[in-house]
Structure formats: C-alpha cells, structure tokens
Write a structure and sequence with these properties.
By secondary structure, this protein is of the alpha+beta class. It has one domain: 2-Layer Sandwich (HIT family, subunit A), CATH 3.30.428. Helices cover about 35% and strands about 15% of the residues. Strands 1-2-3-5-4 form a five-stranded antiparallel beta sheet, covered by helices on one side. Strand 1 and strand 2 form a beta hairpin. It is globular, with a radius of gyration of 20 Å. The two termini are about 20 Å apart. The structure holds zinc ion. Zinc ion (ZN) binds next to helix 1.
Length: about 200
C-alpha cells in the first residue's frame, strides 16, 4: 500500500466507516461519503491497491462488472432512481482524483436539475475531428494495440510492505503510521474538495 492512499487507509484501518452497499471477494461497493453529488452515489473499489482500472486483470474486471450490475439494480429497485450514469475516470488526464482505482455510479432522478444531461456532455463537438482520413488513422492506431492477453498492460508494483515494516523499530513504525494517517486524511480532504 502506498503510504498516502486514502482508499487503502480506510479499507485497512477503518473498514467500519465505509457505507458498504455491496461486496465481492476483491471489491467493495460503498456510498460516496461525506459529500455525495447524487443520492446513492456509489464507488466500486478494489480492496487491494491498484493505481488505476488499467491494472485490473480480466477476471477482476468481470468481478467488478458483476458487482456494478448488482449495484445498479439496488439503485433502480431499492432507491427507485429514474436512471443511472456510470463513470470510469482512468489516470490523471482522465479525471482520476485518487491514486486507487474506482468506478463511480451516479443514480439519476427526474427532479434533479441535471436530469437528462449525459455525463459525456463535458466533451463538446470538434469539427477538426470530423475527417475521414483521421478516422482511418485513429482506427488503425487503435487496432494496432495488442490487447488479446487479458492481462493488465504492465506489471503491478509488488507491495513489499511486510518486509519493509520488519526492518523498522516499533517507535518508527508508530511514527510512520501517524504520518500515514495524517497524510491520508489530508489527501482525503483535498480529494473531497476536488470532487473526485
Ligand atoms: Zn490504495
């Protein structure tokens, strides 16, 4: 676990503080807290640290999708939402606000001010992209990627946390844990302000 990952911090130290609405072997579905942008806004999150959704194996993707499907049903059938939007923000440029993979589920309600607005509305139409040659180039580039293996695109960093901690004295360990909690709490706050 990276020392400043707020999700790992909560999963490992304060699991009772999570508003869990679904769980599988490797994933949680928890309510966005404390500042949801929609009633029932939910995050699907791997229990182990993954920098982004790109690091999930094909099996983990499937597991996440199964939990997503169940969660969407809880939202439409339990919460009686009128619709649902699902967002995956991958890597910083993609709007990922926490260094730990997550999928966002936004229940949509007719009475909400933003009802009917697709989440893709942040992308305006761009005339320079409406070009046949460019379509051809884009298609070729995308099809040239070898994505057949089902494995993540790169090795996940192996977490050597246990070995590291063995080398520390107990005092250092406590100090580090304090630092870790503090920085995780700070990051959590920053993240909330950023509206990840
Ligand atoms: Zn993490």
């Amino acid at each position: 676990m990276p020392q400043q990952c707020p999700f790992c911090h909560f999963i490992n130290n304060k699991p009772d503080d999570l508003w869990v609405v679904g769980e599988t072997e490797n994933f949680y579905a928890w309510l966005e807290y404390p500042e949801p942008r929609a009633k029932g806004q939910t995050n699907i999150v791997p229990k182990e640290h993954r920098e982004s959704l790109l690091e999930l194996t094909e099996e983990e993707w499937n597991e996440a999708m199964a939990l997503l499907r169940k969660t969407v049903r809880r939202i439409t059938e339990g919460l009686e939402a009128d619709g649902v939007s699902v967002t995956m923000n991958i890597k910083e440029a993609g709007g990922q606000m926490v260094p730990h993979a997550y999928i966002q589920i936004f229940p949509r309600f007719k009475e909400d001010e933003n009802a009917g607005t697709p989440t893709g509305a942040i992308f305006p139409k761009r005339e320079e992209l409406q070009d046949e040659d460019l379509f051809q180039e884009v298609q070729n580039l995308m099809n040239s990627a070898d994505v057949g293996s089902g494995k993540p695109p790169k090795q996940r960093p192996r977490i050597a946390k246990e070995e590291e901690e063995k080398e520390e004295t107990e005092d250092e360990e406590l100090e580090e844990e304090d630092e870790r909690n503090k920085s995780a709490a700070d990051q959590w706050k920053r993240m909330k302000r950023g509206g990840y």
